[in-house]
Amino acid sequence: xxxxxxxxxxxxxxxxxxxxEVCQATDHFFEKAKLAxxxxxxxxxxxxxxxxxxxxxxxxxxxxxxxxxGHNYMHPYVSFVCDYLGDSLKMGEAAASEKFNDKSIxxxxxxxxxxxxxxxxxxxxxxxxxxxxxxxxxAASIVPADVDLMRVTHPGIxxxxxxxxxxxxxxxSDALCTSSNIVDIxxxxxxxxxxxxxxxxxxxxxxxxxxxTLDGMYERGDLDRRIEVITHPGSCEVHERYDPEEIKILRxxxxxxxxxxxxxxxxxxxxxxxxxxxxxxxxxxxATHRPKILAMITECAQGYQIAMAYPExxxxxxxxxxxxxxxxxxxxxxxxxxxxxxxxxIIPDDILVSASVPLQKMKTLMERASQRKAxxxxxxxx
Length: 382
Ligand code: SF4
Fold this sequence. Notes:
alpha/beta; Rossmann fold; binds iron/sulfur cluster
């Protein structure tokens, strides 16, 4: 694992890593971290001051009535201080859930667009972003003017933006989607608009993979019309680097391997994988199928999370592809965010209101998709 915390002694108030109280409170995390990185030594753990940071962050959370929500791509150390770990939309929803009702501060252990989602769903709470440098190549690939241009070049076609976009882009969308519900959203919104085209932006690969799924559904008779997907040239700089050749080699070296891939990968990678799904769907797949040997074709920290949750599984990787933006978040800046209550996410009221509309629309479309699936199942049974 990469070293995440500074050892420059800036935080003299942190306890000594060898302090018996620190050791007692955090030793189980050290054991857990070793499941993710078997080469992690006690010396490195102490040099990283992981134990003192965990203790200090927990104390600050209690003092400030705060919760830390984190993305599945967080480094194990950061994940140890998260009160919730999940995908980007679920993080925001968790912050708004009953469990965190009484919290006045939410610290977003993820990239900036995730903090904006949390703020959109929790406008009354103070949402803090540990590092404002935690951007995203995909979110940066589209600006509000691009959405305006799409409205002109594709009049009358619904614009669905991925949740991995900034709030000013979402505010101009007809609906949002996630990697787990994009197919359902495309089906439901084209039905509602009585049209056979949809714009799915900004991830071109997610859009192409969705087009392949929709084509398959039409060919199997699951759709009454072919849906054409129009997209935008954005991409995730992590997932687009995976190559189907890597999968071929994994299958040769590990014949029994189960390969899970994120749909932001190029279509050839998805075709070569055994299962494709969002970070949450991949975690669910592992929980249900318990593969003995697997590869996670996604940001490499998710492999760490799976390794810690399922120590009996062997996780093989061709290469660790880390997200430089996610890696901006570390224990030190989570700690600093809590100490100084910095960097607060502020969204102008008009954008906040406009951005809530496509988010709500996504929920409505999801409800419709669930009802449609339930009636299909009932009809099949009858
Ligand atoms: S993994 Fe990709 S989509 Fe996620 S934050 Fe990094 S660049 Fe953006």
